[in-house]
Amino acid sequence: MASAVSLHHVSCVFESGAQVVRAVDDVSLDIRPGEFFTLLGPSGSGKTTCLRMIGGFALPTEGSIAIHGEDVSHKPPYLRPVNTVFQDYALFPHMTVLENVAYSLMIRGVDRAQREKRARELLEVVRLPDAAQRKPGQLSGGQRQRVALARALISEPKVLLLDEPLGALDLKLREQMQTELKALQRKLGITFIFVTHDQHEALSMSDRIGVFNRGRLEQVASPVDLYNRPATRFVADFVGAANVLDGEDARRLAGHPSIMIRPELIRLGGPEAARTHGLVEDVQYFGAFWRLRVRRNEGSALLADIPTTDGNSVPAAGSAVHLHWDPAAVHCIAAASAGARP
Amino acid sequence: MSATAAATPSERTSAALTTRKGLLLTALLVPPLLWFGVVYVGSLLSLLANSFFSLDDFTGQVVRELSLYNFREILTPTYLDVILRTTLMAAAVTVACALIGFPVAYYMARHARGAQKALLYIAVMLPLWSSYLVRLYAWKLLLAKEGAIVWALQALHLEWLLEALLATPVIGGNSLSFSPLGTFVVFVYMWLPFMILPIQAAIERIPGAYLEASADLGASPAQTFGNVVLPLAMPGIAAGSIFTFSLTLGDYIIPQVIGNSSQYIGQVVYRQQGVAGNLPFAAAFSLVPILVIALYLWMAKRKGAFDAV
User: Is the ipTM of this complex over 0.90?
Assistant: First the structure.
């Protein structure tokens, strides 16, 4: 089966004065039809530029982009079979919600009765049937989000691009929209390409995730693989909390030059068979667990998440503790970080 | 904290102004309200009152008796002709300013950056720094039969074009400087900055994401322009058109210096007031542009020119 979207050695270089910025640097990527694919990375890592190149708002300096087998590298946005939900929604303020949703049908010359009927159907889908005659300025952030979604979906794009669409919402609404978006994607079977810097969002929603760092793609994997088997040090650090140890320290503990242990896999215990020991430096309460920072005698610190179900008492700051983990908890990081270029 | 008893008068004043918002508001609003309410609206009302008086033809004295004589006079063909001519000129100047000004404003708002933008601003504003009369007489020289424009057209072997234009009835005349066409050209030149600046401000307020969203939804650049840019720039165009329309409607110097001897509203008011000393008729006639502008605003509002955002 052909890829929904495929990027072939794509780079995007911006020149501002004497400075040359490689916003996206030699990225190759295949996104499968019907997939919920997330581009994850810190700000300035190239994920948004990558999305903008797929949408046609930025053109690749090198490489090519194909959508369902068709090369679109140098096509303008209005000739591409993709639609976008923009970060701040970009709803047209001079049109009603209904006109906004029906916009792409109006552009294609669909007659008024038919396009309004279709727009009302889409407003049902995003559960906003009563907002049709309102102006975007009268809607809340979450409602605007739904209108932007309906507007982008009305012409049945093969691929939907979402540029940090939940960034402007407060936490509760955001979690609700995450569930809804995921359900909608499953129902419609459209390929979603989702940009976010929030790793929780990425892990909970995606089929696969591509992690960006300094313009490069560090790893493409399912959320489970990404979390348990990060390919690079950057991914280990960026996705979830992690204890990453290097060099002599790592060799002594696990016989490998670069290792990662997730804090929730570390337990407290007695001195016998302990992996290491140290003093508790700091205790943070997270509801489901306590997070201890343990300063080892060797110098480095480890995070250990102790479930609150284990009882309500944890060692106070300053007390000496012994740390235990299973051999399987140690993940050896093979590659050097792609972003760590000279 | 400092003791209240030791507060200086200035401290007490600022404290009073900070804690009692109404006091500050009153202090700030009274002077402009006096100016607008009493001086400006007052003069307008006295103008209105004057327009119902009349002039005794023999004594040259103003007769302070209410009559509709002036308004009947305005409705005679001579003066209706003046009103129609002025209104058409104002409309033509407004349309021309919008057509010429829009691309300039669009470029300034969306494409010009840094030094180029500053330069464009100066280019648009610079004429406003020099005297209106100097610019007007400069145009008189440019448009004259022996002027630079005719000379340039001759050099390009295009003088037949100018002759054809000047031979056109209504807008034509002896030379550019003695034709309504010349009046039109100078009006457009004079008021163009007043059109460009509001349109530029309106376009600058349109987020780039709207244009991207429109393109993303399948609209070609022309469709995006028609469906997104133009409607959102409309308040700017409306604001600019109010300037160009009302400035043309009230001006009495440009048609006096450039053009044939046909009269415009401003000239009639000026002559009746200054030359003939017929203050009541001048007052009545100066109500005409006010009514025309009111009609214009009402139509613009009905068309929804002020609706967007």
Answer: no
Looking at chain B, which residue has its C-alpha nearest residue A135? Answer: B309
> Which residues on chain B are in Cβ contact (under 8 Å) with A57?
212, 215-216
Let me know if residue B69 belongs to a domain.
no
Side chain identity, residue B283: A
User: Is residue B228 less than 8 Å (CB to CB) from chain A?
Assistant: yes
Domain count, chain A: 2
Distance from CA of A90 to the nearest CA of B (A): 5
Phi, psi of B171 (to 5 degrees): -95, -15
- Summarised one tens digit per residue, pLDDT across range A4-56 is 999 999 999 988 778 888 899 999 999 999 999 999 999 989 999 999 999 99
- Do B262 and B206 belong to one domain? yes
In whole angstroms, give the CA distance from residue B159 to residue B218. Answer: 47
Using left for φ > 0, alpha for ψ between -120 and 50, and beta otherwise, residue A215 falls in: left
Contacts of B78 (CB under 8 A, 6+ apart): none
* Predicted confidence (pLDDT) per residue in B238-276, tens digit: 999 999 999 999 899 999 999 888 889 888 888 888 777
Q: Does any CB of chain A come closer than 8 Å to the CB of residue B141? A: no
Give A155's contacts in chain B (Cβ within 8 Å): 217-218
